[in-house]
Amino acid sequence: MMYGRGACQLVKELSCSESGQLTAFNNDLFDRVIKECNAHHLELQSLMRKIQEEGLDIQTTRNADHYGAVIHHLSLVRNKRCLMAYVYNRAEIIQSLRWKVGPVLPQEIQKKLSYSEEEYFKNHSAALESYMSELELDLTVDMVPPKDPYIQVRVLDDIGEVLLSDQSSNLARHSMHFLKRTDAEQFISQGLMEELTG
């Protein structure tokens, strides 16, 4: 048996995928690597127990059981590192999705997540929402600082009377307004208005 092959495949899967893009979570391979870790752990415990039962000092003994235990220990550590790399890199991409697509993931991305990754996204999103509400500031509005806090917009669909941060406005269809970027951003992202440039 080749130890570590499955864990290596998980890491290769990460390196072959497009940067910042998620592939479907590989449950089968992930579970196989965890089973291999459990097997290494049991073998390691068995060999350590055998050395102790023979009355040998674990620190100084250098026999076949010792080297077998070292192989199982190093294989276990390597597999754990590969599993952590797989989970950590996917978690980083999932965190970045919150900033790119907002609090609700598109269905095609949700299908690629494991249950724990979905929960992680929900919890991360809730923590971010809580933090932003405490600050009374939407950190997701401008990822690049704007040159001007006000923008000119055209309303694409009748929104009606809206209370904005510094004024009340009737946002009727095809009307044009000069609004704070932070007020307009939510309507732009919903497709209800467009920013006029130039």
Which class best fits the helix and strand makeup? mainly alpha
Instruction: Please count the beta strands (DSSP E, at least 2 residues each).
Output: 5
The number of helical elements comes to 6
How far apart lie the N and C ends?
66 Å
Q: Rg to the nearest angstrom?
A: 27 Å
Query: Given the C-alpha coordinates, what overall shape results?
Result: elongated
Low-pLDDT ranges: none
Instruction: Please indicate the percent range of residues in DSSP E strands (runs of 2 or more).
Output: 5-15%
Q: Biggest sheet: strands, sense, closure?
A: 3 strands, antiparallel
Would you list the SSEs in sequence order as H and E?
HHHHHEEEEHE
Strand order of the largest sheet: 4-1-5
The whole-number mean of residue pLDDT values reads: 90
Helix content: 55-70%
Fold blueprint:
Blueprint: H1 5-16, H2 27-53, H3 64-101, H4 107-110, H5 115-135, E1 150-155, E2 160-163, E3 168-171, E4 176-180, H6 181-189, E5 193-196
Antiparallel strand pairs: 1-4, 1-5, 2-3
Helix pairs in contact: 1-2, 1-3, 2-3, 3-5
Can you walk through the features of this model?
The protein is mainly α. It is built from six helices and five strands, in the order αααααββββαβ. The strands form two sheets. It has a three-stranded antiparallel sheet with strand order 4-1-5, covered by helices on one side. A two-stranded antiparallel sheet has the order 2-3. The N and C termini lie far apart (66 Å).
What labels describe this entry?
198 residues, mainly alpha, two-stranded antiparallel ribbon
Describe, in short, the structure shown:
Helices cover 56% and strands 12% of the residues.
